[in-house]
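Input (structure):
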């Protein structure tokens, strides 16, 4: 059973960096395509990035492309999101979830808060 737990969020100034992690305590997420999604205050859920189970296929939402990098370590059952050049608009709760497409139903973690101040 997939049990996803995110970490690494925090408060940074614009232009700063953070690295988010998503660990699967169930030890099975290496089998799945994974994605990062986010929800900003007062807004709906938004797709950020996806990665295939073997890491070969990757996709990014246009607004984060070139600034965010998704990766995974299947030996550690952990997914990562390296975020650089952060903007105030990136402020949101970031969650990891199974599935490549935004519409794919599956397990999702509780999320970690990222706050970017100007």
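Output (sequence):
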């Amino acid at each position: 059973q997939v049990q996803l737990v995110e970490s690494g969020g925090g408060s940074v100034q614009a232009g700063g960096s953070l690295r988010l992690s998503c660990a699967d305590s169930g030890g099975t997420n290496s089998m799945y395509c994974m994605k990062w999604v986010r929800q900003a205050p007062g807004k709906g859920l938004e797709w950020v990035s996806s990665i295939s189970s073997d890491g070969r296929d990757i996709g990014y939402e246009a607004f984060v492309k070139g600034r965010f990098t998704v990766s995974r370590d299947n030996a550690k059952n952990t997914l990562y999101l390296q975020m650089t050049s952060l903007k105030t608009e990136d402020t949101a709760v970031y969650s990891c979830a199974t599935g490549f497409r935004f519409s794919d139903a599956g397990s999702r973690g509780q999320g970690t808060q990222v706050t970017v101040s100007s």
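Notes: The mean pLDDT is 94. The first strand starts at residue 4 and ends at 7.
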